[in-house]
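// run 5 | inverse folding | seed 20
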């Protein structure tokens, strides 16, 4: 582990020293590919005892209709927020690193059971194996939505630091997969085509990245101005694209002018967990970002059951998807709050 971490540091130092221009683009692309491979090794170590498993308290069974993870620096109020939203007890104190294990709770909202995980405070350098950051981020990868909890009275630079940690382990926040095609082939070398003008990638950079992965024959086709990081993400194939809400806590401790500045942040929700300000707004935003659909069932001869809907993803909302929840097979797209009656012949 220490050797991998040192290699990561050496590469990052070299990247910091290298001027960014067309002449160095292929070299930087090669370094980024090496970095991605090393960080993957940290996430899934192969050697015995090389980092271990998830760790005590991290083996939380996924339950309910969706999973939401709370991530943030120590003492930003994650435990208080979990307490207010779910009623689950999580020890709260005014010192750092209170939460040492992953504490699950359940929110009942609009008929859905949403599992909320209070993850231990993430620290800078977690993506490089420091502290318990690797376990924290590994668990975060299993979530449907991430809440990055920020302290309104601390620098907003914490936002970027946490994003860097999550991105280091392949979590892409509020992004869609790169719109490029990468296809391996048996012969013919590296074929690079694009339908747009490229300012980041050229054939030499593409070849340098592919060579790091020992790929000598492939077709790469771009439909937008992609970067070296985008190509690496596609080759790695293990990236998680996840909605994220930036929950700025303790807004009762800042001025109205400061709050107006924070309002310019995208994907932002201001709250005070302690005073329970805007928790309803946060829940509504979580529901929006989870992008779930409620389907009501109708027992034969009875009115539709509006109290206990079947929850499906908006991306998987055919009747077949609905029936897979009750082990059946049909086709038809469903909309939010549709009523479904299924009659089974005896």
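// decoded
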């Amino acid at each position: 582990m220490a050797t991998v971490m040192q290699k990561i540091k050496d590469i990052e130092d070299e990247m910091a020293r290298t001027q960014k221009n067309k002449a160095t683009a292929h070299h930087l692309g090669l370094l980024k590919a090496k970095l991605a491979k090393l960080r993957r090794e940290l996430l899934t170590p192969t050697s015995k005892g090389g980092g271990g498993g998830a760790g005590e308290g991290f083996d939380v069974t996924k339950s309910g209709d969706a999973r939401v993870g709370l991530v943030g620096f120590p003492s930003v109020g994650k435990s208080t927020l979990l307490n207010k939203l779910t009623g689950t007890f999580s020890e709260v104190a005014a010192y750092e690193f209170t939460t040492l294990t992953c504490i699950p709770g359940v929110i009942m909202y609009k008929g859905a059971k949403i599992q909320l995980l209070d993850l231990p405070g993430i620290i800078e350098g977690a993506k490089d194996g420091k502290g318990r950051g690797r376990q924290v981020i590994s668990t975060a990868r299993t979530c449907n939505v991430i809440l990055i909890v920020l302290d309104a009275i601390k620098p907003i630079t914490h936002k970027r630091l946490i994003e860097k940690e999550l991105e280091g382990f392949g979590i892409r926040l509020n992004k869609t997969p790169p719109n490029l095609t990468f296809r391996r082939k048996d012969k013919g070398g590296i074929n690079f085509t694009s339908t747009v003008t490229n300012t980041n990638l050229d054939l030499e950079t593409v070849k340098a990245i592919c060579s790091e992965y020992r790929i000598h024959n492939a077709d790469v086709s771009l439909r937008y101005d992609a970067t070296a990081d985008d190509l690496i993400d596609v080759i790695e194939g293990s990236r998680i694209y996840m909605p994220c809400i930036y929950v700025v806590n303790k807004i009762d401790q800042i001025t109205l002018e400061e709050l107006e500045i924070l309002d310019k942040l995208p994907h932002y929700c201001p709250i005070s967990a302690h005073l329970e300000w805007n928790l309803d707004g946060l829940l509504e935003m979580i529901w929006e970002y989870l992008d779930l659909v409620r389907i009501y069932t109708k027992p034969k001869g009875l009115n539709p059951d509006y109290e206990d809907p079947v929850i499906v993803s908006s991306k998987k909302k055919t009747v077949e998807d609905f029936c897979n929840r009750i082990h059946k097979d049909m086709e038809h797209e469903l909309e939010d709050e549709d009523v479904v009656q299924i009659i089974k012949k005896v």
